[in-house]
Design goal:
elongated; alpha/beta
């Protein structure tokens, strides 16, 4: 009679613990604020090109910083993220 060997079944799924994160608090106004725009080139919309002037005219923002990623599939460069982090608010676009 053959000897019975127990089989061990392994679960390849790791336990993952994600830290609790929260959204940044909303600004009560954009007036006087510095707003960043991160464009995903080359998918830039004509409407997006007007956004900086509209923000200045209609929302009275103090400054608009526009930066463009060269490819939509790549992350923004660390320096670009650090620069945009100095803004009060950032709009990350995926316009077509």
């Amino acid at each position: 009679m053959p000897q019975v060997v127990p089989m061990e079944v392994l679960d390849p799924v790791a336990e993952v613990t994600l830290p609790d994160v929260s959204l940044s608090p909303r600004l009560d106004t954009l007036r006087g604020k510095r707003v960043g725009i991160l464009e995903n080139a080359p998918a830039r919309s004509l409407n997006l090109s007007r956004l900086p002037s509209l923000l200045r005219e209609r929302m009275q923002v103090a400054d608009v910083v526009v930066r463009r990623k060269p490819y939509t599939s790549r992350t923004a460069a660390r320096e670009m993220i650090q620069e945009l982090a100095q803004c009060d608010a950032v709009i990350a676009s995926t316009a077509q």
